[in-house]
């Protein structure tokens, strides 16, 4: 597979195939999202890592003015606890915290959709990049 075809496939994954994350978060309510999780998967952080890789690029694509901060903590200890959370902020500070520990990526995305005010992107506005 050529480099161009791989890039097109990657861009289409971000823009058109990750359906759950094709939403616009209310910009009047949310200025920033902050994710904190550890680099390694142990202690229930695998779902957070997959959420970051699978869903966050699409959220960023359709919310270009939303600031997203990701803090990945290097922790080799299987006994020391590192926060595994997603926080939504407005102008004054945090308005919502979601505990991502021991959740699958899709569960985290569904919780985001349940708890954050958003608008689904109409099918006609989904961007697909031709080959």
Automatic annotation (TrEMBL):
It holds the Pfam family L51_S25_CI-B8. It is found in: Mitochondrion. Residues 40-119 form the Ribosomal protein/NADH dehydrogenase domain. InterPro entries: Ribosomal_mL43/mS25/NADH_DH, Ribosomal_mS25/mL61, Thioredoxin-like_sf. Keywords: Mitochondrion, Ribonucleoprotein, Ribosomal protein. Its main location: mitochondrion. The keyword Mitochondrion applies. This is Large ribosomal subunit protein mL61.
């Amino acid at each position: 597979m050529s480099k161009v075809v791989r890039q097109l496939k990657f861009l289409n994954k971000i823009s058109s195939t990750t359906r759950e994350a094709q939403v616009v978060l209310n910009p009047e309510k949310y200025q920033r999202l902050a994710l904190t999780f550890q680099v390694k998967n142990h202690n229930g952080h695998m779902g957070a890592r997959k959420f970051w890789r699978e869903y966050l690029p699409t959220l960023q694509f359709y919310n270009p003015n939303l600031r997203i901060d990701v803090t990945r903590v290097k922790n080799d200890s299987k006994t020391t606890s590192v926060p595994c959370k997603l926080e939504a902020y407005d102008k004054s500070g945090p308005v919502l915290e979601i505990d991502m520990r021991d959740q699958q990526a899709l569960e985290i995305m569904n919780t985001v959709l349940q708890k954050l005010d958003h608008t689904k992107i109409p099918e006609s506005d989904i961007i697909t990049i031709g080959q």
